[in-house]
Design brief:
CATH class of the largest domain: Mainly Beta
Strand content: 35-45%
Helix content: under 10%
Strand order of the largest sheet: 1-11-10-9-8-15-6-3
Distance between the termini: 48 Å
Number of domains: 2
Radius of gyration: 25 Å
Largest sheet: 8 strands, antiparallel
CATH topology of the largest domain: Jelly Rolls
CATH architecture of the largest domain: Sandwich
Length: about 375
């Protein structure tokens, strides 16, 4: 179970409107070469106890014994050409769990931008702020996670992991004349250190926050959903016209009023699904984001997703039309054959679900009246 501490979160989110507005990439390190070959300055070189390699498209650090710290630094821009805003995103994996009595002995990531300087300590299953007051625990060990920093102005900023904002703050350092990123590691420590500790950096990217991006498509396509292809729709993807990462708190979900043909007594309630995660697909285009729900969208009711990230709200609506088992948007004689095949089924599953008008998990005579009304278009 993921646990987080958000001491300053409530005040700042109200002020900042946390969540990415969009990405305008300026630099990409894809982990497919050593950092020194991609313009990163190497300090405390990985020698002796540490080895560098590139494997499966990721930069890999391995440690044998304790005792060697390595780090890599990249200049973002000179003072006369500061980005007006900055996002930094990286994907990182470690097999080192956080020890009980330390929070600074595996990997780290530093962002210096305008009036702020902050450092995050990374472990395979946790991220901890420099002060140790803010942290996110319970991440899946030895699995890639997406970490992100965002600042709209060089003063206010926040960090997130896999789309979950866990740390926000206000910078209080004077402008130092240049901006830089720094990452590295020390090989773990304590009683939880594995025999062969390793850190993997899949990519490190940064750019400016842009506004006004538009949704261009979704998968499945917006509108009527084919129950044969998507019998339970509990996730979908949205593609924007530029790289993006939309957060949970930027999406609201509502069920649209049911049509008159659905006015039948229901033994259950139409529950509105909640968005539980937003994430980019591994190795997918950066403008495509997956939206994960806590339950499938309800049958026989339209479900509307409203994206509000600082631009005029955009909506995507999915509907299993009443009695529609083939995704053509209405109930007709093709669906009547499906009703005959589904009649008597309990519990209800698959393509039969749009025929369960009263949501009692059975296809019976109580549903037939509503289905006949849907056939006649009433």
């Amino acid at each position: 179970m993921v646990r987080r501490r958000t001491r300053r979160l409530g005040i700042l989110l109200a002020t900042l409107g946390a969540g990415a507005q969009g990405d305008q990439p300026l630099y990409r390190y894809e982990g497919d070469v050593l950092p020194s070959l991609a313009g990163w300055a190497v300090f405390d070189a990985c020698e002796g106890y540490c080895t560098e390699s590139v494997e499966n498209g990721a930069f890999l650090l391995r440690w044998g014994q304790l005792g060697n710290l390595t780090n890599y630094t990249y200049i973002v821009s000179r003072a006369q050409n500061d980005p007006e805003s900055l996002w930094v995103e990286w994907r990182f994996r470690s097999n080192v769990p956080i020890p009980r009595f330390a929070d600074d002995c595996d990997a780290f990531f530093v962002v210096n931008y305008r009036d702020l300087l902050d450092l995050m300590f990374l472990f395979g299953d946790a991220i901890v702020s420099f002060s140790g007051d803010d942290w996110l625990l319970g991440l899946t060990l030895d699995e890639f996670h997406t970490y992100r920093f965002e600042s709209p102005d060089g003063v206010n900023y926040w960090f997130s992991v896999d789309g979950l904002v866990f740390y926000t703050s206000i910078g209080n350092y004077p402008d130092k004349g240049f901006n830089y990123l720094q990452f590295g590691g020390g090989g773990g420590c304590g009683e939880t250190r594995p025999p062969n500790p390793r850190n993997e950096w899949d990519y490190i990217r940064y750019g400016t926050i842009s506004y006004g991006e538009q949704i261009t498509s979704s998968d499945p396509a917006e509108g009527f959903v084919d129950a044969r292809e998507h019998p339970t729709l509990d996730r979908f993807t949205v593609t924007f016209d530029e790289p993006n990462y939309v957060y949970i708190d930027e999406i609201t979900v509502t069920n649209v009023e049911m049509s008159k043909s659905q006015n039948v007594e229901s033994t259950g309630t139409v529950a509105v699904p909640a968005v539980v995660a937003t994430r980019r697909l591994d190795n997918g285009p950066p403008e495509t984001v997956e939206i994960v729900l806590d339950r499938p969208i309800p049958y026989n009711a339209a479900t509307r997703f409203t994206f509000n990230d600082g631009v005029p709200a955009q909506t995507i609506e999915f509907t299993y039309a009443p009695g529609d088992t083939d995704g053509d948007g209405d109930a007709d004689l093709h669906d009547f054959a499906a009703f005959q095949n589904c009649f008597g089924n309990s519990p209800v599953a698959g393509v039969c679900l749009p025929l369960d008008f009263n949501a009692d998990s059975a296809i019976d005579l109580l549903d037939f009246g509503a289905f006949a009304a849907a056939l006649s278009g009433r």
